[in-house]
Task: structure prediction
Amino acid sequence: MFFTVESSARLHLGFYTISGGHTAYGSIGVAIEKPRVTVQVRRSDEVEVRNLTQVRVEGDVAEVVKSLGLPGAEVGVLEAIPRHVGLGSTTQIRLSLAYALSRAYGMDWSVRKLAFTLGRGWVSGIGVAWRVHTRQRPHRKGRKGSGA
Result:
C-alpha cells in the first residue's frame, strides 16, 4: 500500500536573536501553497526511487531511511521544492518522506520526533511547526486529501 504526503514550501520573514548569549532565534514564517513536495512511499527491502522532478532527492531518501532504521523504501517523488532558494526544500522533502514512511512501517512517531531524529527545525522551526499545527495526515493511494 502506498502512502502519499503533500507539503508546501515556506518563507521566513526575518531572523533575530532573542536571547543574550544563547542560540535562540525568533522569526515569522508562512507556508505557501506552491511550490510543494508530493511523495508516495511504501515498504520495501531495498531503496528504490522514482523521481519525476528535476530536483535531486536520492540523498534525502537514503538519509531518511538510514535515520529511521528502515530496511528500505519504494519512493515516488511527484513534486519537489527547488533547492537553495530559501523555501525550506530539505526540511520539507525529508519530513514528508519520514512521515509517510513512519506510517507505512507502522511507527507512531510525531512530526516533532521525526524532525528531531532528522536534525531539522533547529533554527526557525516554521518548516516543522506548520505541519504540526495543521494536523494533516497521509492518505492511501486512491483516497483524496493532504498529508502531513
